[in-house]
Amino acid sequence: MSDPAASPCITRAGGTFRAAPWSGAEPAAGWGEVFAVFAGDDPAAPAMLGAYARDGDAVAFTPRFAPAPGLRLRAVYRPPGADVVTARFGGVPVPPRAPTTRVLSVTPSAEIWPENILKLYITFSAPMRIGVAWDNIRIKDANGAVLGGLFVEIDQELWDTEGRRLTVLFDPGRIKRGLVDNINEGPPLVAGERYSLEIDAFWRDAAGGLLARPFVKPILVEAPLRAPIDPGAWRLTTPARPTDPLIVDLGRSLDAALALRAITVRKDGAILSCEAELERNETRLVFNPTRPWTAGRYTLKAEDILEDVAGNRIGRPFDIDANDPVQRGATAQAAELTFEIQGDAP
Amino acid sequence: MAQSGDTTTLERARTQRANLKSASALAFAPRGVLLVGDGLGGAIYAFETGDLAKTGSGPVQVEDLTGKIAALLGTTSDQIRVPDIAVNPDSGNVYLAVARGAGADADTLILRADRSGRLSELDLETTPHTRVALVDQPDADKLDRRGNALRTDTITDLGYVDGKVIVAGLSNEEFASTLRAIPYPFGDVTKGASIEIWHGAHGAYETNAPIRTFISYQFDGKPEILASYTCTPLVRIPVAKLTPGAKVMGTTIAELGNMNRPLDMIAYSKDGADFILMANSNRGVMKLDASNLGKYAAITDKIAATEGVPYETVEGLQGVRRLDRFDDNSALAMVATGEVLNLTTIALP
Q: In chain A, which among 129-188 make CB contacts under 8 A with chain B?
């Protein structure tokens, strides 16, 4: 039982705050009426969410989330018939993290992009802060002027599950021919012009560190790429030895993510386990088999979701010209190429 | 409660915590059912909140929303994101999708603000829910060498329309424009049927057209969705056309100005006339005259920047990021003022 002579106090051990002494049941209005912990000193701020429990002669409070490091916490205990007790915890500033995170890659890797480029992938070496991408990515023209209205700036942003790879979509309203913005503003980037893509070092990673250095990529824009992908034009270099890779020259830069996911090597209908890599600015796909090739007939299969850097698919361009009898009604296709590996390769 | 006999699914869900990996879009279905779009988790959740009683009549006002949420969750406001808000029409309480943490591994939770602005958490442990998975892409769950799934869908909007949950999403890989229409209550399905939405640009060009935001709307007594693409115009799409595997062309009925992207919409009536309120990326909040929305012919020719449904820009409403219908006379708005986000109730103009 509580010692009536003990003076009220608040302690913190591990993740739990305790206010003592307390005797009796939970107040009608809830424990929050007598004991609350606040993040900071703002009198308008609500108390932290958490779970209360009676713990011997004390009221225990465990926050819903472990408070952020460096946060100054204020615990307030209002024992009935006694003075209010306030205690402060934490507030020791966290030293800034060394900037170690870098931009690992931007694809398309080429420094020459088609005018109707549809998307970029920016891959970082560590998970990044989400929600600030549009403040930290910019494209400047040859005079150094920042261009506005280039991207689909959705608040949610398009990240992978780890938060290391961001997809940046160019505004389709400016790429798609015939739309008001395409007619009045033109495409985001214009053939014949030079630009630079810049990623700010002030963009913090998810752990709070700045980028180790800003990222700059010079770009020259060339004519738009409007033809569908034609797998018939791909060149296959089949393995001469059982451990050699299969090399597929694609004739144009494909979407870096989709080329790795939507093109597979199969034998007897089953996907073969391979380490696939893109080379030469995503114009070449190299399949290293995890087990040596065996003799037989293989299929290289491309799914209908495959896109090039301008969103063209197999059998269907990004924007279909409905007045063109060939294009009208075109749909994206899957494609299969077959190749043989001769028996008893040396 | 969901009005279904599908008790198997509901019973199963009651016994386990909803493991939300993200929450990028919220909406209400009838009877207090909160729909949550979890793009990173590849799923739609329907929570039976049981929050059915009217809780008063006053407006809701929360100044410095991210600061308040940060205080509640023991962190700083730069660690808080609020991707979407939804008003429960039964109770008038406001539900907020919240991420606590800077990165993709942020904790996801649903908070509720009552009319006094008091914030509390929806208990994902005990609130009965059903879930439907969305993944239907080849190798969509393929992992990289670090065991990380690269492909994700971001759900940009969802809503309950005529017995279906309509889900608009954007992939971080293929430019696909799939819309899904999933019958609700969720039955014994593992994924929503996807529908390809197309946009016939003025002139001659047709393209896939991902939908960014939409609302349901009755045209001659038939449900349609009124949608904005990522490439901007306002289109009509009959709900009856949203069948699995369909390829649907939206009918453009308005052009809303150069370089402008709608962020959110609500429909309302005032003094016997119908309107749509639309928050935009660049052109503030627009009030569209919807009295004769069904009579606008499809815009098919190359045209000027504005045409079709007439609109006016509402003065004095800047920085509105999200909108929802609050009651007969007002809307709830999430408004960005500089770095600060406020939740406020505005009179319907």
A: 129-131, 149, 152-165, 167, 169, 171-173, 176-185
